[in-house]
Amino acid sequence: MSQLIVKGGSRLEGEAGIQGAKNSVLPILAATLLTAGQVELRGCPRLRDVDASVRILKGLGCTARWEGEDTLAVDARSLSGCAVSEALMREMRSSAIFLGAILARCGQAELSYPGGCELGPRPIDLHLSGLRALGAEIDDAGGVLHCKAPRLQGRKIVLSLPSVGATENLMLAACGASGVTTIAGAAQEPEIVDLQDFLTACGANVTGAGTSTVSVEGGRPLHGCTYTIMPDRIVAATYLCAAASAGGEVFLRRAREEHLSTVTAVLREAGCSIRAGEEGIACTSRERPAVVRPVRTAPYPGFPTDAQAILMAALLKCRGAAVFEENMFENRYRHVGELGRMGAKIQVSGRTAVVTGVERLHGATVRCTDLRGGAALCVAALAAEGETEISETSHIARGYEDIARDLRALGAEAFWREH
Length: 419
Ligand code: UD1
Prior knowledge:
The chain is of the alpha/beta class. The protein has helices spanning about 20-30, 50-60, 85-90, 100-105, 125-135, 165-175, 190-200, 235-245, 260-270, 310-315, 335-340, 370-380, 395, 405-410, and strands at about 5-10, 10-15, 40, 65, 70-75, 110, 135-140, 145-150, 155-160, 180-185, 205, 215, 225-230, 250-255, 275, 280-285, 295, 320-325, 345-350, 350-355, 360, 365, 385-390, 415. Helix 4 (about 100-105) packs parallel to helix 6 (about 165-175), helix 8 (about 235-245) packs parallel to helix 10 and helix 11 runs parallel beside helix 12. The relative contact order is 0.16. Uridine-diphosphate-N-acetylglucosamine binds next to helix 1, helix 5 and helix 6.
């Protein structure tokens, strides 16, 4: 496995393009199962989770192939199965997203339970109760989900919390249901809007994404299309935080501030100058971050849990204290111990973490505990004196095409070292 080496202590200056969004492409790949035609996905990021989704699609009998750098062509007309193997389910925690689409397309599905992950338990009770409400019979005994739905019937579903995955799964199942499905209490993330836009481009009638009520008129035949995946707002947040951490001036092509406003608001408070336009976002940071108001993670449009570790890493040298409250996942402070090895002062108590800004950080040997925790180590390493050696980088490969390439484009010294 490769190690990532980051030599910190110098200011950034450069420009990088933002890859397509992981959390957008995964449900869209599941959605391709509903279409009778070729789908061409442009701006498709080359990620481990995308490879896992492609293996799931191929395992179901679809064809999928890369055409050039970032275009993935999928054809689901040849679909021949409705079961996803346990090995494939294990490879990617968000594989439950395939359930709604397989059910809608085949009338049955067999998947193993996705189980927990490094962030703690990942229940899918809302996905299952929503699918049951649409008429699916689901037997979840023994860690395997046996699902049958010869006929799905649209109806109103109320989600007790705005789960991103459940909203997406139900949107996909609803495309195959007769009548109208209304999802109240839906998640409002930009990736759900991207899924709606993709489904619309295939001929579906989906409205309301981006608000708390999504409606789907099911039963329409869906055709292929060419679609460009939205830019990844968490990758953009990572490189903005990199600039805040190391200081300097960066430009992120394709990054869209309307998806990131809670993150840019904190960075502005910390003293960064951020200018957003049609082409992307520019960020200039000249001094140690100032003190910011407490950062509380919440469903969109609140502060994204996926940016919590990354922002924390950018504030390790703040001129005072920074308070974080993690409200989405139980186990999302695992990066704290690793940041401590670099000289960070962070106290965790339950869902709260308090960073006491230090004047200096130093390079260290650290390991990734999860995807965004790994990215946070890179952000911190940029502000540390000397070399940081980051191991267990396969976590990072789940969400970043090539973080070392991007950081180099931004003027950092970062490279992979093969073992
Ligand atoms: C998605 C994102 C992930 C992000 C998360 C929260 C993808 C592929 N992943 O994950 O990067 O961190 O949103 O923004 O898009 N919950 C239940 N029952 C359910 C489903 C969820 O209790 O059936 C709980 C979860 O434990 C969690 C909260 O709801 O505490 C939010 O989870 P959810 O929005 O479903 O996250 P994911 O879709 O898994």
